[in-house]
Amino acid sequence: VIDQIRLWEMERNRLQDTDAFLYTEFKSERDFNSILDHAYKLGIIIWANKAKRMFAVTEDGHPQIREFIKKRMKKNGPQAGGSSSKS
Amino acid sequence: MVKAVKGTILKCDPAVKQVILSMNNSEREPFIIEDLDETHLFVDTAHVERIKRRVEQLLEENTYKIEQLDPKQ
Questions:
Q1: Beta-strand pair B2-12/B40-43
Q2: Handedness of CA A74, A79, A80, A82 (dihedral sign)
Q3: What confidence tens digit (pLDDT) does each residue in A30-55 have?
Q4: CATH number of the domain where residue B48 is located
Q5: Beta-carbon separation of A20 and B8 below 8 A
Q6: Domain assignment present for B1
Q7: pTM score, whole prediction
Q8: Contact between B2 and A82 using a beta-carbon 8 Å cutoff
Q9: How far is A43 from chain B (nearest CA, A)?
Q10: H or E stretch covering B48
């Protein structure tokens, strides 16, 4: 029984799942860093990699980031890049 | 063009990640959306429960390997 509990514990520790939105294909490092900083401030980052220019946020955090990117695009003009979202 | 995709982040040790990678490669429809790093995968949420069950199964089958990995032994 002890072995079984230990196995169960190890399995629990070995694989964790979190529903998320993965953001990719940032046009510039500047865009990426500014949006990532904002997401960190909101405390919604699950995973990020600056070299790959990718980050993942919680499901709850996703609408906030989507709005932030839209506003940023409006401010920077229509040529500043687009945004698409699959859900 | 910024892209946002919905899915599930799996966080695991590198050994379990290898198990999931080989599971993904042996299937007709791959479920891994993005291989993030050594300990993180981004996958199709619909497959998460099945992946977890399979990993659990494999860990049970390979009890002796787990014993070897246990630092308390």
A1: antiparallel
A2: positive
A3: 999 999 999 999 999 999 999 999 99
A4: 3.30.70.1220
A5: yes
A6: no
A7: 0.79
A8: yes
A9: 17
A10: helix B48-61
